[in-house]
Design goal:
Blueprint lengths: L2 H7 L18 H26 L18 E2 L9 H9 L6 E5 L1 H4 L18 E7 L2 E10 L1 H8 L19 E7 L5 E7 L10 E2 L2 E7 L5 E7 L2 E2 L15 H8 L9
Antiparallel strand pairs: 1-2, 2-3, 3-4, 4-9, 5-6, 6-8, 7-10, 8-9
Length: 260
C-alpha cells in the first residue's frame, strides 16, 4: 500500500513501531515459519498469564479506564470493561470473541508510563484486542476530520481510487471500491503484511478498510490477525477477527462516527 494510505490507516498505532523492509527479505517467509514455531510456545504461556490478568475489575469509572486492562465478551458487559469496548462489542457478531481495549504503546513498545491517550475524533476510536480460539487479533478504529486528512495527505486526492496501483506500487490484493449514497466511498482490501524478518513487530495478514465521507473526513479500520514479537498477548488468529462481509457492515455503522 502507498505511504499516504498506510499513514492514514496506521495512525492508531503511531509510536508502536513501523514496518521496515529487510535486505534479507528473500528469506522472510522461511524465517517467519521458524519464528512462529518458536513464538507459539512462549506465546501460549503469555496468553495464559494474560487471561488471568484481564479478569481483575478496575476501580475507576469507564471514562478513566486504563485501556490495556479492560475486557468484555461480545454482546455482554464484563467487570472492568471500558465503555468503548462494550459499545464496540455490541456492534460485532456475537461469536467474534472477547473484545478488550488495549494500548499499542504498552503491548508493543512497552512504554512506561503509558503515554496519555491521543485526541479522539470518533466515539469508538481506539485499539482493541480480540481473543478467540486461543489466539489474539486486533481491531483499530480511527476517524480523522477533514482538516486532519488534508494535513496528512497534502496535495494527494483523498477520494483517489485505492484499487489502482499508485506510482508503480503493486496493486492491492482483493481490493473492492464502492461508491455509496451521500458521496461516501468505501474501499476494502487484503494485506499480507509480509515485510521480512526485519519488520518490528511482524504483523500477520489483515483486512484494511477506508470510508471517505462527503465532508472530507475519513474512517479507517484495521482488521488484523495479530503480531509476532519478543512479547505477545497470544498467537496469531488463523483469520482476521471479522470477515470481509462483517467488516463492511461495521464500516457502515454510524456509531463509529462523531454525532451530527
Amino acid at each position: 500500500m502507498s505511504d499516504d494510505v498506510r499513514g492514514l490507516l496506521g495512525r492508531a498505532a503511531e509510536g508502536a513501531g513501523r514496518p521496515v523492509i529487510s535486505t534479507e527479505a528473500v528469506f522472510a517467509k522461511a524465517a517467519r515459519v521458524r519464528w512462529r514455531r518458536r513464538a507459539a510456545v512462549s506465546a501460549a504461556a503469555v496468553c495464559t498469564v494474560a487471561a488471568g490478568a484481564f479478569v481483575v475489575p478496575q476501580l475507576t469509572s469507564p471514562a478513566h479506564d486504563t485501556p490495556q486492562t479492560s475486557s468484555v465478551a461480545s454482546s455482554a458487559k464484563a467487570p472492568g470493561a471500558t465503555d468503548r469496548a462494550v459499545r464496540l462489542a455490541r456492534l460485532l457478531p456475537s461469536d467474534v470473541g472477547t473484545v478488550e481495549e488495549v494500548s499499542f504503546a504498552d503491548i508493543i513498545k512497552h512504554a512506561s508510563p503509558v503515554p496519555p491517550e491521543p485526541p479522539r475524533t470518533g466515539p469508538l476510536d481506539g485499539q482493541y484486542a480480540v481473543r478467540r480460539d486461543g489466539g489474539v487479533g486486533y481491531l483499530t478504529v480511527d476517524v480523522m476530520d477533514a482538516a486532519a486528512v488534508r494535513k496528512k495527505l497534502g496535495n494527494s486526492d483523498p477520494a483517489a481510487d485505492l484499487c489502482k496501483p499508485d506510482k508503480g506500487a503493486p496493486a492491492r490484493t482483493d481490493c473492492v471500491r464502492e461508491e455509496l449514497s451521500g458521496g461516501r466511498v468505501l474501499t476494502i482490501w487484503s494485506d499480507a503484511m509480509d515485510y521480512g524478518e526485519g519488520a518490528t513487530p511482524q504483523w500477520g495478514p489483515e483486512l484494511t478498510a477506508r470510508l471517505m465521507l462527503a465532508d472530507g473526513s475519513l474512517l479507517g479500520v484495521r482488521d488484523s490477525t495479530g503480531f509476532e514479537a519478543d512479547e505477545v498477548q497470544g498467537p496469531l488468529l488463523k483469520n482476521p477477527p471479522l470477515t470481509r462481509t462483517q467488516l463492511r457492515e461495521l464500516m457502515l455503522r454510524t456509531e463509529l462516527l462523531p454525532p451530527g
